[in-house]
TrEMBL record:
It holds the Pfam family AA_permease_2. Coiled coil: none annotated. This is Amino acid permease. Keywords: Membrane, Transmembrane, Transmembrane helix, Transport. The chain crosses the membrane at residues 25-44, 56-75, 147-168, 180-199, 219-238, 259-283, 308-327, 356-375, 381-401, 413-436, 442-458. Its main location: membrane. GO terms for cellular component: membrane. GO terms for molecular function: amino acid transmembrane transporter activity. It comes from Govanella unica.
Amino acid sequence: MKRRISIDDCTRSGQGQGLKRTLSWPHLVALGVGAIVGTGIYTLTGVGADRAGPAVMLAFLIAGAVCACAALAYAELATLIPRAGSAYTYSYAVLGEGLAWIVGWSLILEYTVVCAAVAVGWSGYASGFLLAAGIDVPHVLLAGPHAGGIINLPAILIVWAVAGLLMLGTQESARVNAVLVSLKLVALAAFIVIAAPAFEAGNFSPFMPYGFSAHEEGGMVRGVMAAAAIIFFAFYGFDAVSTAAEETKNPGRDLTIGILGSMVLCTLIYMAVAAAAVGAMPFQEFAESGDPLAHILRGLGAPETARLIGVAAVIALPTVILAFMYGQTRIFFAMARDGLLPERLGRVNAKTGTPVAMTIVTALVVSVIAGLFPLAEIAELANAGTLCAFIAVSVSMMVLRRREPARPRVFKAPMPFVVGTLAVLGCLYLFISLPAMTQERFFIWNTIGVIVYALYGRRKSRLASV
């Protein structure tokens, strides 16, 4: 716990292992919005409505507020410690190696499981698109055992397609990413425009049919907080911006704009989409749909726009998988550079410039999860890892404010101890609102992590010999 990397060293690239600075704030906003606007809003709107009813609106607001507090802490630390590794690196510099390992191990869980969740969400829209086009695919190949199928083949195929692109050295240019982000936003705007005239105030009554606190009802965990605990998945992604800190031209300005700008923009979009969805159709009618937004538009007699939503999801959601797989390589890069993981995990192929071996391993794990498990369970497990990271970042910000109050900060979070405390308490409340099975899986994962650290990372750490 006493081993800490120097903050001053974090601002300098190390021993030829630094990353090239090529990004500015428009790229980061596009990256943030591209990572945030994905499976969450396209598919979890229905899952959230199933758990909270019309109060899914309130669930979006609560999850967004918690993320906003965490985003302020991220913005302060990302500009103060502009180095690859995100929450792992901040924890290493402030809280020590032991806690940093747990955070990094949790981030590995987050990024891996997010890729799987997005793949399952993509599969739901791809399946609906195929059916609408008259292409009959057997159900056993479109869903895992939980839904009466054998395997979710589309989810597996998209994982390997993205992994293939990464292994071939394909990189998203800022222009292509911006175009795909625009496509997603245009589709959501079209949904709001068409759904708004069908708005029925009666669809919001009763507003909170399952109550506020998370509880089990009819074999399901329901309540506003139960919905918020999974809808939280729809908001994070801004932390992917912080993984690009070492590749940002002007970290002080660009990271602040990228993190906070993407959060504000996406919160406004989500609230508008949720209001339009619930207002246009009783939540019971779209709650269990794999493509809720397209389902609502088909019900409103707008099949062409529903097809547009499906096309946007099919084309654009894989970019989220790509962004998170890319982000995971940055986490591995940082942990391997610090000696906590084998150095070869941070190496890239000399010919393609990509970590081929690690990409294959990641794709194998992601495809197994995506092929066999339901979206809700996957998203909840990803949320557990993210909540851990958010708590660590918020605590790190407050500790550093006490430990080094005079250290120059490009961006300062307003009322840091209020914001930090709210973020920690909010994340803890969301964590205890997750199903018990999800919490158990999270602790099992971190138990394995502690064993790996004790057997390898503790002895091999670069700071062990200092």
